[in-house]
Amino acid sequence: MSEHPILVTGATGKSGRRVAGQLRAKGLPVRAAARNGEHVFDWTDSRTWDSALEGVRSLYIVQLDGTKLVRPFVERAVRHGARRIVLASGRGIDDPDYANDSGGVLDGILDSEAAVRESGLEWTISRPGWFAQNFSEGFFADAVRAGELRLPAGDGAASFVDAEDIAAVVVAALTEDGHAGHTYELSGPRAVTLTEAVATISTAAGREIRYVPVPVAEYVADLVHQGLPPADAGAFADVIEPLRKGTDAYVSDGVHRALGRPPRPFAEFAKSTAAAGGWRV
């Protein structure tokens, strides 16, 4: 299938960008699709789907949270002759105690997983936990650069997984045999508290960065004061809940199962990110 382009949706995001880069490093043709990417693709505009899928035999799906668009997209991919599919999902979706779902995304994710399993294609599901890159590119990045991360996470911990490992698992599933029918839960090698994580980043970046635990109500009020609607502020607080409760602290074996090696430690992520100027003010 190497002569066919490999479709990567969400190609400007944390995992999609790295998947596309790792595929290209292997000399494989990539169709990097996103609303503002090399190939224009919009989940909410089905008129963009066919051009994304034309000639594709393998694809990586990063779904649009809160929607059930993966099922019709997969059905169209089958009609286009796709053979192999990797879906980005998430840890905890089958655990009712994992987190509140005030944002209403769980039903869509579960339907997406069912859709790929029922597709008749060679499917693999990637279920990563909290990304280490949330400290450098995502939720926490601006606060970390500013020197103070305020979260309603208490002394909770998570087994943060490096997005480079996530991408490596996806690339293996897209390009190698032996991954069909597997659901890979992905984590780092051990749980790290927010205090530990920020101290590690502080050491790597060579400047003081603090983690300040705050009550949920104070966090929500801060976000509302910054202009966020109360419902959205509450949803952000719910996203943090697994950190506070420690429900994402357990270690999964997916990286080792897929790649035959251990996942990258958080300290290594912090060191390489700092060296690349990831927290430069």
UniProtKB/TrEMBL annotation:
Pfam families: NAD_binding_10. Residues 10-176 form the NAD(P)-binding domain. InterPro entries: Ergot_Alk_Oxidoreductase, NAD(P)-bd_dom, NAD(P)-bd_dom_sf. It comes from the Bacteria. Gene3D superfamilies: NAD(P)-binding Rossmann-like Domain (3.40.50.720), UDP-galactose 4-epimerase, domain 1 (3.90.25.10). This is NAD(P)-dependent oxidoreductase. It comes from Streptomyces niveus (Streptomyces spheroides).
